[in-house]
Amino acid sequence: MEFTAEQKHTLISIAEWSVQETVTTGKRISLPETFRIDDILRSPMGAFVTVYIDKELRGCIGTFSESEPLYKNVHEMARQAATEDRRFRPVSLDELPQLEVEISVLSPREKISGPEEIEIGKHGIYLIHGIRRATLLPQVAVKNDWSPVEFLECCAGNKLGLDRDSWKEAEIFVYEATVIR
Q1: Does the model's pTM come out above 0.85?
Q2: pLDDT at residue 66 above 90?
């Protein structure tokens, strides 16, 4: 999906505001009316928000849920990424000047049969193995220079918490992400 410069600016502003307000007040605060939310941003779409402090990953949380408008998903995922990602300590007040956010707007997921259908740089992966579910965004494979099989192995081993080759018994889905920085 393509977004205008104004839509990108609005989404980044919402994410930054959400982190700053959550860290500053310790509360979940509704978005003020001052943000310009157009029809595209009101469309139901899933999103992940990644939070960096001094260019270091400090949180990444998202939802595939298309039951909420994009701008609301960005607002909530930014808040959670900064304060509730269990892999990291919450962002503190003194770290806010070094805050950077990245938003990945997600396309609907599509089931595939194997790694040969994964395009590195285009697809993120989503695995379902029994009751376990895990995902890796498209940019993760690019950043790590992984093959499609390595991408699946990492998701199975590091995210599902199973053997690296357990992806072979999992349902595999791909999706695309429009990254906004």
Answers
A1: yes
A2: no
